[in-house]
Amino acid sequence: MDHSIKENNGPKYGILIILMIGAFIAFLNNTLLNIALPSIMKDLDVGTSTVQWLSTGYMLVNGILIPTTAFLIQKYSVRHLFLTAMLLFSAGSIAAGFAHVFPLLLAGRMIQAAGSAILMPLLMNVMLTSFPVEKRGAAMGVFGLVMMGAPAIGPTLSGWIVEHYDWRMLFHFITPIAVGILLVGFFLLKDKKEKIDVRIDGFSVLLSSLGFGGLLYGFSTAGSKGWDSPQVYVTLIVGVISLAWFILRQLKMESPMLNFKIYKYPMFALSSAISIVITMAMFSGMMLLPIYVQTIRGISPFDAGLMLLPGAILMAVMSPITGRLFDKFGGRGLAVIGLAITVVTSYYFSTLTVDTTYTELIILYSLRMFGMSMVMMPVSTNGLNQLPKRYYPHGTAMNSTIQQVSGAIGTALLVTIMSNRTESHAKQLMEEGMKNLTGQPTPEVLAAMKQQILMKAMLEGINLAFFVTVFIAAVALILAFFIKRAKQEEDIISGEQADKEMKAIN
Question: What's the pTM?
Answer without folding.
Answer: 0.73
